[in-house]
Each structure stands twice: as C-alpha cells, then as structure tokens.
Amino acid sequence: MSSIPHHQGPGHAIDDAHAHDEHAHHPGGIMRWITTTNHKDIGTLYLWFSFIMFIAGGCLALTIRTELFHPGLQIVDPEFFNSLTTLHGLIMIFGAIMPAAVGFANWQVPLMIGAPDMAFARMNNWSFWLLPFAAVLLFASFFVPGGAAAGGWTLYAPLSVQAGMGMDLTIFAIHIMGASSIMGSINIITTILNLRAPGMTMMKMPLFVWTWLITAYLLIAVMPVLAGAVTMLLTDRHFGTSFFNAAGGGDPVMFQHIFWFFGHPEVYIMILPSFGIVSTILPAFSRKPLFGYASMVYATSSIAILSFIVWAHHMFTVGMPAAGQLFFMYATMLIAVPTGVKVFNWVTTMWKGSMTFETPMLFAIGFIFLFTMGGFTGLVLAITPVDIQLQDTYYVVAHFHYVLVAGSLFAFFGGVYYWLPKWSGRMYNEKLGEWHFWLTMIFFNVTFFPMHFLGLAGMPRRVPDYATQFTDWNMVATIGAYGFGLSQLLFFYIVLSCIRSGPPAPAKPWEGADTLEWTLPSPLPYHTFETPPAIK
Amino acid sequence: MLRSIRFCFSFIHVSRRLESTPATSSVAAWPPIAQAEFCVVSRRNDSLGPRARWTLFASLCAVSFGLALGFAALGAWMVLPYSAAGMGLLYGAWRWFERHTGDWERVTVTGDRVLVERESGDARTRREFNRCWTRLEVEDGAPVRASRLALRSEGESIRFGDALPVHELNRIARELRRVLARR
Fold this sequence. Notes:
The structure holds two protein chains of two kinds.
Chain A: H1 16-24, H2 29-35, H3 39-67, H4 78-113, H5 121-140, H6 159-162, H7 165-194, H8 207-238, H9 252-286, H10 293-306, H11 322-334, H12 336-350, H13 359-382, H14 384-390, H15 394-424, H16 430-456, H17 471-501
Helix pairs in contact in A: 3-4, 3-5, 3-17, 4-5, 4-7, 4-9, 4-15, 5-7, 7-8, 8-9, 8-10, 9-12, 9-13, 9-15, 10-12, 12-13, 13-15, 13-16, 15-16, 16-17
Chain B: E1 3-6, E2 13-16, H1 25-28, E3 38-43, H2 50-73, H3 79-101, E4 104-110, E5 113-120, E6 123-130, E7 135-139, E8 148-153, E9 156-160, H4 166-181
Antiparallel strand pairs in B: 1-2, 2-3, 3-4, 4-5, 5-6, 7-8, 8-9
Helix pairs in contact in B: 2-3
C-alpha cells in the first residue's frame, strides 16, 4: 500500500493529499535517476543502458568483422582478437539483451497487471545501479596486465584458470550482474504473483507477463549455478583449489557441464521475453485475439522445463557415452515441439486477420521469419553426427545470431516501436521506422546468412585469420555488419526525435491493442493504477 | 439493519449500523466499533495468498537446492551457498511482503465522530474528526489518474481508499456522502 504512510503517530496529523502530491513531484535532474524507485524510470534506465551496451558490443563486433574482411592479420593481434570475441559475447548477453528484457518488464509488467509499481521498489533501484559497475569492470579488463578475458564468453577451464587479471574482473562483473538478475527476478515474480489487480487471474494475464514469470523462475534456478561455477574458477586461480585443474585432480570438463547447465536455460532467458513481446504485437496488428493462448502458456512452460535437460548438446565433441548423445539429441529435438506450437499460433493469429504493417508488426513478422530459420539450424545442430562436423564452425555462429539477434533484438525493436507512443506520449516517424526495419532486415541477412556457407565449408569460429577460400563470404559479411551497425544509428535518431519533437500520441494509437496499459493516457502519468483497475 | 458486502478479491467490507463482528476472517481481527452508521474497510489485493505463496516458495527451494545438492554430489559444492543465498533473499523479500499484506484502513462514522484508522506493518494510526465539520472530497483525476477520496475537516485532509477498485471507490463515495449529510 505504497500511498499509505508507514509511520504516523497518534495525534500527529499528516496531510495525505499534500504528502502524495509531494511524492508526485519527484526529484529532477540526475538525482531523479539515481534515487528513483519508480518502475517507469527504472525501465527507462535499463533500456538506455542496454542500448549503450548494444552499441559498445557492436563496436567490438565491427572490429572483429574489420579484421576478418581479409585473410591475414591486419588491425589487431590474435590475443586481442580473442578478447574482442569474448567481451562481445559477454557484453551483448549480460549487458544488452538481458537488461533490455528487464527494462521491458519494468515498464510493462505493472501496467499489464494493474499494479501501482514493482513489489520491491528500492530493490528495483539497486538491481539497476549494480549494472553500470559491472560494465565498468568488464571494459576496465581491457586495460589491466594480460588484457581482457580471451577464452570465449563460456570462460572454459583451463584457459580461464590460466588467464591474467582481466579474468578476475570478468568474474567479479559476472557476480555483480548475477546478483542484479536475482534481485530483478525476485521482484518480477513477487509483482506478478502478488500484485495483480482484482480479477486479473493467471490465465487472463497478457502473454508477455507469463513469459517473464517463467523467465524469472529460470533465472532464480540457474543463476546460483553460474555464480558457483565462476567462484570455483576464482578459487582455482587464487586459492589453491583444483575443481577444474586436472593437475590437482580436478576435471575441466566438469566446468563445461556446469556452465552449460546454466548456459542453455540462459538462451531461453534471453528469448522468452521476446516471445512475449511478439505475442503482444501480433494480435494488435492482426486485430484478432492471440490464437491458442492457453497452449502458448503451456508451450512456454514446456520450453523452460526442457531447457534443463539439453545442456550437453553443446558438448557432443567433448566425449560422452552413445546413450548420453542420443538422450541429449532427442531431448533437444523435443524442444522443437513447443516452439513449433508457438510459431503455429503466431501464424494462425495473423491468418484472416485485418492486418496492417506498421513498424512493430514488421519487426514481429521479421522475428517469426528469421527466428524460425535459426530454430531450424538449431535442429540441424541437434543431430549429433552433424554437430560433430559443425562444432565450433561459423555455422554455429550463424545459428545463434539468427536466434538472438533476429530473435531477441528484433522483438525488442518491435516492442520499443509498439510502446514508445505510450511511454513518451509522442509518435515516432513511421516512414523512418519502416526504413529502419528494412535496412536491419537486409543487412542482418547479408551479415549472417553467408556464415552458414562459411561454417559448412569448414571455417572455424574465434580465429583472426583464415584460408583464402573463405575470403568472398567474409567480405560480404563484413559489409553487411557495417550496414547493420549504421542502421542502428537510424534507430537512435528515430527514438530521440520521437521523444523530443514527435507529434502527440493518442491514448491508444494501435486500434487492436487491448492490454491494460492502453486504458491509460499517453504519456503515462508518473504514478499509475494507484487504485486497482476493474478487470472484465 | 445489517448490510455487509464482501468483495472476494479485495477484502472490502461495507456495513451500515455494524452490530456484530464481520464474517470475514481478515476483518474479524480488527475491533469493531459498536453502533457504527457507516464502516468501510479496505485492504490491498493479495492476489496469491499466503498458502500458495509458501507452497511456491517450497517448490522453488526444492528445485534450487535439488540442483545445488546434485552439483555438490559431483564435487561442485560451491553452487550450494549461492542457492542458499538466493532462496534466503527470496524468503526475506516474501516475509517483508507478507507483513504488509495485512495492512488495512477503515473509515467509520458513528455518532458525532468520523474515525480514520490505519495499520501498516507495525504502525497503527487513528484520526478522529467531528462529523459536523467533516466533508468528503472526491478529487476527479481523470484522465490522468484515478479518482481519490479525502476527508477534510478543520483544515486537515486525509486520503483513504487507495486500495479500492475504481468502481467501488465511486460507490462508497456516494454512500459516505449520504451518511455525512444525515447529521
């Protein structure tokens, strides 16, 4: 009951109306953002932070692609190249995608369930403000003796045990980001389960809320596994333990098992909120309810459960019994069933709908098209004998970029365009938005589609140099990467010009939108749903 | 005549001439005021409930500690303290949350007095106004925000009913205004 003062002594009258108004007049300037406990402010902080990290991680990617434009060593030495691939992965996963998803959750979850704010507003503030410190540690690792971590974002032992001081900073950063994620997920679970407005039953919740509830469960389950793994790395490095050190009786392969037990659910942590965003956008622009709502909820839950039993498909070449290979192969293929249910439901939602193709819808359709391609290449990689051929080739790089860039990122772009009028009270430039979509779509495919060819032809990943036979497609991929990167500057311009000078947005700019936030004015008032809304 | 309405989700009790302890368990703990002409109690909606909350907590503990113990059995025992820390944080957060699920506020009109009582965590407050000098203000927040109710008397104003759904807020405002007019 946030609007009721906690301590009000007997006989001491407090003018509640004034007290409330004071609360509404939040601090201005930088202190507003540092001290804020408002879910909208914190959502904005998360989204801007993730965009900055996206640009920073993108710059690392462009350096990688520049080096790979030609065979031979041109602009960076091999050790630094390995640091670039490592930090690119860590920054994009922990700095860009995950915070962006939490940003959407902060903005949208309370609004979609009719709650006044997140359940633990101060913890929400701490969750965010841990992240910049973690980011500083990651970037600072470039400047310490030995350079940044260079063993890949998977931090495999024994490379990570032997690495320089940069690895310590990376481990510390991962701990901080893990703590932030745990606090964020506790907040989201509590908000969704306990703060729903009267009448907002679980099966009336928008699918975005469902996907985030399941994502938060996954985070709570697997973040301790990652924290334990990197702590064991740290003690192996500095305190004489031998968890992963074969010389001391440890087992480096155990690190891979532990890491991927975290790592595969992490893939779904990154993609499930995107499923929720797409499931919100598609019905709005098809002017039809989401097809198979209940089956979407069950499919999402099934994906989350299955994600715990497929981790070793990342390790087929490490060596395991044939029974293990078969189990992990079939379990991985099984994930295609609930994912297929989702894709079917999305397509059926559009079927015979009164569709229009504004920018959010374009990104949602682009998501379905490209994510399905990424899913299919995932099925190819699930087949053990094929995976043994393709392990650590560019085919894998193409696969996970189709899933995470065309999956997560496209959905986030769609989500920003969809809710920006509500958040800012202003409309973005639709024509420029469409340009952004088409440029992103084209350059994404120019960048990553040739990587399938490179991988199938045998080009290994994480190498700064390559055989000359791979030159042509690498040049194409590099040109595409620059186009893709520059296209995102257009996105920045669109968002900025919308916030500063876009035309006023109506309360409900999208005819088919039917979730609770559209019952509120645009821009959203600082405090919303202080009294619970009526749910039909 | 006793007239009481209980809304299943928000635990609101509205009664005129309250003569007995209300039937709902959540309200029963609060001391009733004899011969009240009007009484409204509002609580924030707790959409999960304590039983489901702690069942869920137990299931999360089972998953988290199950995984951690599995890893510990394989030698990776350092997952265990992080599982314990995560579950400990969740327990603390939910205990804190539960302390406030019992928060309530009550407005009672009895005789020549209007009482506004509140309990938030351990803090309990009570304001008393002269009925003749008290008026109800309905601050129409549309379209920016929902309406607010406030009682104003002797230059002081006190808000109440924030936990009430909008449609109930309007109904209670009408009823309270009628009771206050009948002085």
